[in-house]
Amino acid sequence: MTTKTITPTAHLPQVTEPRNPGIPLDMQWVRSVQANTSAIERRAKTLPGRRSVKKDWQAAWLLRAITCIDLTTLAGDDTAERVRRLCAKGRQPVRQALLDKMGMGPITTGAICVYHDMIGPAVDALAGSGIPVAAVSTGFPAGLSPFHLRVAEIGESVKAGAAEIDIVISRRHVLSGNWQALYEEIQTFRAACGDAHMKAILATGELGTLRNVARASVVAMMGGADFIKTSTGKETVNATLPVSLVMIRAIREYHARTGYRIGYKPAGGISKAKDALVYLALMKDELGDRWLRPDLFRFGASSLLGDIERQLEHHVTGAYSAGYRHAIG
Description:
Elements lengths: L26 H6 L4 H14 L4 H13 L1 E4 L7 H12 L4 H6 L9 E4 L4 H7 L7 E4 L10 H14 L3 E5 L2 H5 L3 H15 L3 E5 L8 H13 L4 E3 L11 H18 L4 E3 L7 H15 L11 E3 L1 H15 L12
Parallel strand pairs: 1-2, 1-8, 2-3, 3-4, 4-5, 5-6, 6-7
Helix pairs in contact: 2-11, 3-12, 3-13, 7-9, 9-10, 10-11, 11-12
């Protein structure tokens, strides 16, 4: 079976946007930010049924999702060999035979995300691919190490070759309403990142309320974040649709006020192809097609890719393959 409507636009090149330099902390704006929890939850419940893409269109959306995955390994037993296998998967996330049958050229994942010690093997394995290495930093996942060490860790990861840095905020600043401290922390982290793009992990499952999520999102963007990200993947509650709706609307408001586009990264708990479709539809509905490219949208995931592969194989062959045939690395 060869599909007809899938085109190479399923994998788009990175588009350079002016980086968000941040703006002065505007406490009037921060205090004005509210979140109607019941309305947000009602809207979130409708999202899985609002759009339904089938057949060739679904395959095209799933291919787009692959290009937006930060393929991740953040385990205590990571080895250089495991990271090299993950990078090989990032270079060729879908079997070429399947891509050929869909009329697609080569695609890659959006990035490879690792701990600091694994940056070197990842950079070597990805040489010439154009795939960036993202490193988690600043005392990930809790962010409770001494501040000067968190800042130094960013610098060491950039020096090692990381093109993107995923920082974690101090949750206590949000929970105590100390927005000035949060703003200054993020500004310092952003300065340490230099040319590396900074994703600010809000750890939304630990912030207590959707209003806190909304305000933390705004302050992170004011402080210079290039992306805002839901979770470390280590919290009890990670990415959810209500949280995503709140963060995405904060991004929309920031763009309307400043002209700068901020990226969004839901992370943790997104493991099924159907979930990826819902998030892509949400981004399209709330922010538009421009946010469906990997420079402005990423999934923090590992097992998601395997399920997408299974769905693509079903699309091409009409049969589901066993999960073990789609190992991540």
